[in-house]
Design goal:
The protein has 257 residues and is of the alpha/beta class. It has helices at residues 22-33, 71-74, 84-93, 107-116, 135-145, 178-192, 196-200, 202-205, 207-213, 221-229, and strands at residues 6-10, 39-44, 48-49, 53-55, 98-100, 124-126, 129-130, 153-159, 236-240, 244-245, 249-250, 253-256.
Length: 257
């Protein structure tokens, strides 16, 4: 049985939506290489809720959930349709989840998709991050969503493996703190070895590097959905890696196919 790939993208700054750089050029190339999805399910770091919610909107708005950026970024629109039947199917796969008709596509979704699928011609919906769940439970949610791959749904996680805005090195855009690289490479190794215990128990397993790399969990958790939706038969690859930015960001992307 052919399964749609699963993709995690380190999305970084919202300005990547406007910029042309190796990361965004790589996203555009990746979009052309992937089999065309019937729909895209995005789990974004930027939609946190009490309880799991599934976006159920036929014409989701482009949400500009940030401030202090140029007007050109607020002018970006990503008018993808919402796949109502698939969204409803996803909601039925996730116990105690609810449909949300009011949310739209946040920048964790559209800042990536404007490069991968610039024509916005593939239906998109989102699943929220339930702040009450443990890492283990988030991973299990990914497993529950796995059957959607059989129906041509691209499961897209959007966050950053390392994301600490408190200690950004503004003076050196390509700088990397040692703990950033240490944690990023440890997670890469854990993904390749399917070391679930480390991926979910990173705080205890990886110590100070984990505390500095993941001061809050929302940018890391989408990776667990993607890992959960993957299988041992998938080949893992890295469409973009080594992209450490401003000391405390890892832009690594991970593909299972």
């Amino acid at each position: 049985m052919s399964l749609m790939p699963v993709l995690f993208v380190g999305h970084g700054s919202p300005m990547n939506a406007l910029d042309t750089n190796p990361f965004t050029v790589g996203l555009n190339t990746l979009g052309k290489m992937l089999p065309k999805p019937q729909a895209i399910l995005c789990v974004s770091a930027h939609w946190e809720t009490q309880g799991t919610q599934v976006l159920y909107n036929a014409a989701p708005a482009t949400i500009h959930d940030f401030y202090g950026f140029p007007k050109a970024l607020f002018d970006v629109q990503y008018p993808a349709r919402g796949p109502l039947s698939i969204a409803h199917e996803a909601q039925k796969l996730l116990p105690d989840s609810t449909l949300n008709e009011k949310w739209g596509l946040d920048h964790g979704a559209w800042s990536v998709l404007v490069h991968m699928f610039p024509h916005a011609d593939i239906p998109v919906f989102q699943v929220s991050l339930d702040v009450t769940k443990t890492p283990e439970q988030h991973l299990e949610m990914g497993k529950l969503l796995r059957p959607l791959r059989e129906k041509g749904v691209l499961i897209l996680g959007s966050g950053n493996i390392v994301h600490n805005l408190r200690v950004l090195n503004w003076r050196e855009p390509t700088a990397v703190y040692p703990w950033n690289q240490e944690f990023d490479l440890a997670i890469k190794k854990s993904l390749e070895e399917r070391d679930t215990a480390t991926l979910t128990g990173f705080e205890k397993k990886l110590g100070e590097a984990a505390a500095l790399s993941v001061p809050t969990p929302e940018h890391y958790l989408p990776l667990l959905y993607c890992y959960g939706a993957s299988t041992e038969q998938d080949k893992i690859s890295y469409p973009y890696e080594g992209g450490y930015e401003m000391g405390s960001l890892s832009m690594r992307s991970v593909l299972w196919s």
